Amino acid sequence: MSQQKKGKAEFDTSTAIKEIEEKKEAQRLKRVMREKEKLRLKKEEEEGERLAEQERRLRFFEDERYFRLSLVDSIVTLSQEVEQLRKSMESIKEMTEDAIELAVCLGDSDHHGLDEIRFKYKGYS
């Protein structure tokens, strides 16, 4: 009987050792899976951050492009307004010269005063 008990004890011991080894392997596999999951999540987070940074840069460049286009549009508009003002000034200059000539033609007796107006108008004062 002692042989049977000894055999059973050896069987129980080897079974217990196998069970412990299987549990250790299962725990190791769980650890490996957790680590893999952590790495995957970290990678996803880094990818998300990278994509967010790319999106911020893209928005910045789009804003910069919009700003530059607005600036160019403003410059063109101002240029057109300056040209219109120049034409208006030229027209005013011509009308003023016509008015002076008309006053001279009407025989104003104060020719000295008209000469002074012409002198100031032409920018010599």
UniProtKB/TrEMBL annotation:
Sections of the chain in a coiled coil: 22-95
Keyword field contains Coiled coil: yes
Keywords for the protein's UniProt record, in alphabetical order: Coiled coil
Domain of life assignment: Bacteria
Official protein name in the record: Nucleotide exchange factor GrpE
